Description:
Elements lengths: L2 E7 L3 H12 L4 E5 L5 H6 L1 H18 L11 H11 L6 H9 L3 E4 L1 E6 L2 E5 L5 E12 L3 E3 L15 H5 L7 E5 L3 H12 L4 E5 L11 H13 L3 E3 L4 E7 L2 E6 L4 E4 L1 E4 L3 E3 L31 E3 L10 H19 L18 E3 L4 E6 L2 H6 L4 E7 L4 H4 L8 E7 L4 E9 L6 H10 L3 H4 L12 H9 L2
Parallel strand pairs: 1-2, 1-6, 2-3, 6-16, 8-9, 8-14, 9-10
Antiparallel strand pairs: 4-5, 5-6, 7-15, 11-12, 12-13, 17-18, 18-21, 19-20, 20-21
Helix pairs in contact: 1-9, 3-4, 3-7
Amino acid sequence: MDSYDVVVIGGGPVGENVAERAVRGGLTVALVEGELYGGECSYWACMPSKALLRPVELRAAAMRIPGLPVGELDVEQVLARRDSFTSHWDDAGQEKWVVDTGIAPVRGHGRLIGEKTVEVTAEDGTTTTLTATTAVVLATGTTAAVPPIPGLVEAKPWTSREVTSMHAVPRRLVVLGGGVVACEMAQAAKGLGAEQVTVLERGERLLGRMEPWAGDLVAAGLREIGIDVRTGTQVVEVRRTGAEVTVTVEGGATVLADEVLCALGRRPATTDLGVETVGLEPGRSVPVDDSLRVDGFDWLYAAGDVNGRALLTHMGKYQGRICGEVIAARAKGAPDAHLRATSDHTAVPQVVFTDPQACSVGLTEAEARAKGIDVRVVSYALEHVAGGSLQGEGYAGRAALVIDAARRVIVGATFVGPEVADLLHSATVAVVGEVTLDRLWHAVPSYPTVSEVWLRLLEEYGL
């Protein structure tokens, strides 16, 4: 069968969610994947990176408790556990889920060759042409960006793929960048035994998209465990000589390493997707409306990182669910007014799994002020909460809310501290639901938990 109601290009978590929702809506779906079903998140990003970070995080937490003996990590066991989470880079189980769900798996590299038409090139070079009666969905995600720094490509740098799948921890690692991948993998490498880890960030602070103080606290945490964090540092050249890499920064200083990790952002995977055959520009994000339909088309959709709206797995899966439901509803003639569209991406939650963790949702203070909101910011030190002090000696962190004072609702929240990620969803609910501060005052946090910081923040506001 080469004709389906829907053809989805990209079998990662976003494409899987699109396909599953479309099948649930009564449509036939082909899911095209050129590598592994389950995609980047399952094999080279979210799952393996967190499997590497969790033992490091637990050891750090244990070291804050007096009387609790703490030994060295067994790196071999950590890596073996990581391998189990990636199913040893075997997607047989994931493909079984695809089949069992009623989705038709199609192996090979998919690309558009015209309206509602996708050509799939298998590993052996044979091609299959798939036609879609209703819609084609682009869910190809992004790839690691390797900028034209002299010598960088020739030095064979690691990207997020190589570092999350490493089978030996390098003795010396240089990390280029100061975003999520850079911070998390610097932490993982150092925690798993790297003797020298150097982070080189050209901006003035780490995690530049979060509140400025969040990046400062994460940088302090990395430095505390011996990571050399250098901000305001521009790399001008990278050279590999045998097994050694030399990284030269502006001013002439050099850093020697065994491996260099390029964590300098992501690029939409549209360079070999055939988008030019339908009038779109290769190498760029695909612009979509709030229902994930590509601007100017009635049959083409793009969900997840490929559309550039929010480069996070959970947001991509959210878009995928919406996209599949929208396509199925439109195929049945449902009016757009009745569709559940992704109309709001201001409340995007994100967690950085360093020690301390950093997480945020909604607007930063600067973003809120730029929108003309009557802003009031309240913050509180986590170590002053009873539940925080119980977490261990030296436990510290900060929580802050960005409040629309005119409406008395939270429009943004940031938490930084050990294991604070689980505080984030309550903030996400408050932001998305536009729950007023006066109602939140009746949401009583349990004692003694770190969540009591919510009460303290409201008291700081004056409630």
